[in-house]
Amino acid sequence: MTALFPFDNSFARLPDRFFARVVPTAVEAPRLVRLNRTLALDLGLDPDRLESPEGFDVLSGRRVAEGAEPLAAAYAGHQFGQFVPQLGDGRAILLGEVVGRDGRRRDIQLKGSGPTPFSRRGDGRAALGPVLREYLVSEAMHALGIPTTRALAAVTTGEPVIRETVLPGAVLTRVASSHIRVGSFQFFAARGDVEGLRALADHAIARHDPEAAEAENPYRALLEGVTRRQAELVARWLGVGFIHGVMNTDNMSIAGETIDYGPCAFLDAYDPATAFSSIDRHGRYAYGNQPRIALWNLTRLAEALLPLLSEDETKAVAEAEAALTGFAGLFEAAYHGLLNRKLGLTTMRDGDPALAGDLLKTMAENGADFTLTFRRLSAAAPGAGPAPEPEAVEAVRSLFIDPTSFDAWAERWRRRLDEEPGSVAGRQALMRSVNPAFIPRNHRVEAMIEAAVERQDFVPFETLLTVLSHPYDDQPDFAQFAEAPEGGGRGYRTFCGT
Ligand code: AMP
Ligand code: MG
């Protein structure tokens, strides 16, 4: 019989000091909450077998799958600006890698499957709430078209985990292009382990930037690749109102995927100073700070890579700076290109960033809901032909405390749209394809978690997953899931997903 997972483990072939070999801890009474059958098929796995006792034992950590080489990876990281030389997978265990039907290699990792040598004071466990949040939000991000880790399965363990209260335990099976982080490089740099650093960089190049191997300076090309992916990723986050919440360097993936969904949340009312995480007291990771923080993190990556960039220190710094200088332009291009599409503009003119910026400013001043404003704008987009429906315009206006402030802006927008080529229908279709109707609204996510944790009711989880798998479709049957919470969601708090 073929293996459940056709593992081919490249990370496990790296030197011993990259990780600790550790097996998952068997749990008492696992129950499958959900298997992501579509993802299983994409990965070339057999969903029926994964749902059978054989697969299920693996997904709960009761049994080590054939071909797996379970390990906890070592990494370091800056947490809220403070460097911690030793972090590592404290509650995650990499089982191995599979190459999917698309030819892409992906990590299969259990999260919440017991202690590792990197657990420090933690228990190595995950609670059901954060597991469901990560499953739902990461799958929603995927459906929104934003690079992200994926969720293959969630199981409950039948064992309690002790947090502020006693909670049901769970294990998430996370799928990622890799789990290499900025902090992985910092781990070796902090130890002056240049050979480790080189081995990691070569591994990262092979996995994520194979063309960099041919470049004049492969390590600079790697840094440029990571910079580009991160600039585009953060622009995409801003475009859907996503706040990561804990952009520590150990939570920033070299692959350019959104990773670590602990305290993440989406904006309701637009305010760039929004920070939901209870531990982010100074708003370091606030919505509007995310581009700056991404560059800060990339600068830490560049510092870690210095010994590889050149033997000559001055030259190494110049190479690093040259790569990092690209960030601003890449981010601006991605961000303003996206904002233009969100406004139905397919060309780029000098005044466009100001036009978009003024809308955002007016939204912030008027407590306008981010998602609803852009989605309703899609219906209110005028074309060269008949004026937009008054109801469609009113639907946007009503989102602003002072609707006339929207009118003033909308007049400028209409004049700008007059200069655009293309049909009204085409424009509306473009806008609808970048302005989602459905995002994981915080009040919905909380209600879903409460139902699962308090009442073992997983129906809200399944329903939300269904709605969020088609975020750009209208889905009239689920219209209530598009609605904003009372009061614009102010005062909402999230907690690190421990
Ligand atoms: P995070 O803020 O979730 O990225 O986690 C930061 C560090 O704490 C990582 O090294 C995690 O592996 C570790 N960690 C978080 N929660 C736990 C836990 N319950 N048990 C052990 N380690 C944990
Ligand atoms: Mg983390």
Automatic annotation (TrEMBL):
EC number: 2.7.7.-, 2.7.7.108
GO MF annotations, alphabetized: AMPylase activity; ATP binding; magnesium ion binding; manganese ion binding
Residues annotated to bind Mg(2+): 251, 260
Catalytic residues identified in the record: 250
Pfam families referenced in this protein's UniProt entry, alphabetically: SelO
Domain of life per record: Bacteria
Reaction catalysis annotation: L-threonyl-[protein] + ATP = 3-O-(5'-adenylyl)-L-threonyl-[protein] + diphosphate; L-tyrosyl-[protein] + UTP = O-(5'-uridylyl)-L-tyrosyl-[protein] + diphosphate; L-tyrosyl-[protein] + ATP = O-(5'-adenylyl)-L-tyrosyl-[protein] + diphosphate; L-seryl-[protein] + UTP = O-(5'-uridylyl)-L-seryl-[protein] + diphosphate
Broad EC category: transferase
UniProt keyword list: ATP-binding, Magnesium, Manganese, Metal-binding, Nucleotide-binding, Nucleotidyltransferase, Transferase
Obligatory cofactor(s): Mg(2+); Mn(2+)
Entry binding sites for ATP: 88, 90-91, 111, 123-124, 174, 181, 260
Protein role: Nucleotidyltransferase involved in the post-translational modification of proteins. It can catalyze the addition of adenosine monophosphate (AMP) or uridine monophosphate (UMP) to a protein, resulting in modifications known as AMPylation and UMPylation.
NCBIfam families: PRK00029.1 (NF000658)
Family, per entry: Belongs to the SELO family.
Protein's name in the database: Protein nucleotidyltransferase YdiU
Species assigned in the record: Methylorubrum thiocyanatum
